[in-house]
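Appendix B. One record, verbatim.
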Amino acid sequence: MKPCAKTTGKAGLIAGILGLVIIVRIFVFEVCIVSTESMVPAIRPTEIIVIDKLTYGCNLPRRWADIPLINVFTWVPSLRQKDERNDWGFRRGWGLRTPREGDVAVFLSPDQPYTMLVKRIKTVIDKGTALPIDSMRTTVEQMALSERVPIIKRLDKTYIGGKPSTHYITQHTFYDMRGDNTEKSHDSRRFGPISEEDVIGRMSLVLWSWDSQGTGWNKVRWGRLFRPVR
């Protein structure tokens, strides 16, 4: 029996819509809900924010779990374990500019897998920067761990990649990420600078703002809707 033309048309439409959603989520933007107070007053808890992926260029998927909608299959434990062994390499799409100091950016948490964090870029550490090991030892060790470069200290010498050295030269650009509300922020002061590979996009717009303490219409923070994140 041949498939009905009407059924085939609907299937094609659904496939087209799903494909468009995947393309938009990867290359253009996605939305997220902020759950902490770390960026108050710029961003408040329960706000829905638009993540702009055009400005910096999208971070292309490195495994199936990074592809929207398709990643539902990796919820199956056996498939997720297989997928975690995949690594298609770091590639970033074309963007309008690179991240800079003062930007509010979204990135993958280095100590909480599959968790996105939002902080402000305090300092940009360019690729190829030579950092003295003794003066910034903890920070350098965290960056080297991110770049999978072994640092070993023996007696009075430090070895980087098996060679004695007094400086660590970064292989990627790193960003010191800080929350505006410092007392309630889990940021680079704890986990070190973030590699460019982990940056997802720029926080651009407050799409919706909801005050759980309000009542009726006052639950909506009307003055914050469609407001740029600064």
